[in-house]
Amino acid sequence: MRDVYGGRPESSTIYSLLGSILSFVPALGPIAGALISDRFGWRAIFLVIGLLSIAALFNASMRWHETRPAVTAKIDVRPILTSLPFWVYTGGFSTAMGAFFVFFSTAPRILIDEAGFSGIGFSFVFATVALVMIVTARFAKGFVMRWGIAGSLARGMAVLLLGAALLVFGELFLQPSLVSFVMPMWIIAIGIVLATAVTANGALAAFGDTAGTAVAFYFCVQSIIVGFAGTFFVILLGGDNAWPLAGYISATALTTLAGLWCLWEPAR
Question: With the CA atoms of 30, 166, 22 and 252 taken in that order, what torsion angle do they form, in degrees rounded to the nearest 10?
Answer without folding.
Answer: -130
